[in-house]
Amino acid sequence: MVFLGSPAARVRGLRRRVLAHRRLLAFGCAAAAAAAAVTATAPPPAPSERVLVATRDLPSGTVLAPGDLTRAAWPAGAAPDGAVRLAVGRTLAAPVRRGEPMTDLRLTTPGLLQGYPGLVAVPVRVPDPAVVALLRVGDRVDLLAADPETATAEVVARSAEVLALPSEVESPAQGATGRLVVLGLAADEVAPVSVAAVRDFITLTFSG
Fold first, then answer.
1. Are 163 and 137 contacting, i.e. CB atoms less than 8 angstroms apart?
2. What is the pLDDT of residues 150-192, one digit of tens each?
3. Which of 34, 52, 103, 126 is deepest in the core (most CB within 10 A)?
């Protein structure tokens, strides 16, 4: 750049340009310092957790595939109760909207007979609730049909698996006594047990 005029004028012009650049540099430094201060005082990001949600609207009965689900960030502690971590291969018990968290209430529960091939699940009402109170799911019992009039008893099922012990809240029955027990029976035991449950006094004995 060529400066015209007297040497003094050229010096003054050069000084003005230097000062202008210094002001611009000072402004940039001040802006950078202000941005750094804001960043330093900003609160840290809120903690979050990954929640399994639907990627699209899904109808009831859908067998979930990997493309039906994704993980979304939710505020820590805000995930709904019963949120599940794995759901691929499970079946929806109710419709789900896109973005809705996947919870246990939206999924069907494994069947009573899962792991018991060849058995039939049969609910049997046992008159003596104290006997049922001794049972636990997974116990094996022999089922006896007693006839009070003839004072005889017949074993109608052997080594039956206790699959479920519904409470009376879950299986109310007006006028019924005793407690309901769901047993896993062989196919040929279903008919005699069903008849005995209507006709005779049913009781249980523990088997090995």
1. yes
2. 888 899 999 999 988 887 644 445 555 788 899 999 999 999 9
3. 126
The three-state secondary structure class of 39 is helix
Distance CA 156, CA 191 (A): 9
CB atoms within 10 A of CB 161: 19
Q: Residue 54, Cβ neighbours under 10 Å: how many? A: 23
Cα within 13 Å of Cα(204), Cβ side = 29
Burial class of residue 65 in the structure, from the number of CB atoms within 10 Å of its CB (0-12 exposed, 13-18 middle, 19+ buried): exposed
For residues 50 and 73, the answer to whether their CB atoms sit within 8 Å is yes
> Which three-class secondary structure state does DSSP give residue 104?
helix
pTM of model > 0.70:
no
pLDDT at 193 over 80: yes
129-153 in b/e form (b: 16+ CB < 10 A) is eebbeebeeebebebbbeeeeeeee
Region for residue 126 given its phi and psi (left: phi exceeds 0; alpha: psi -120 to 50; beta: otherwise): beta
Q: What are phi and psi of 167, to 5 degrees?
A: -80, 165
Question: From the centroid of its chain, how far is CA 124?
Answer: 30
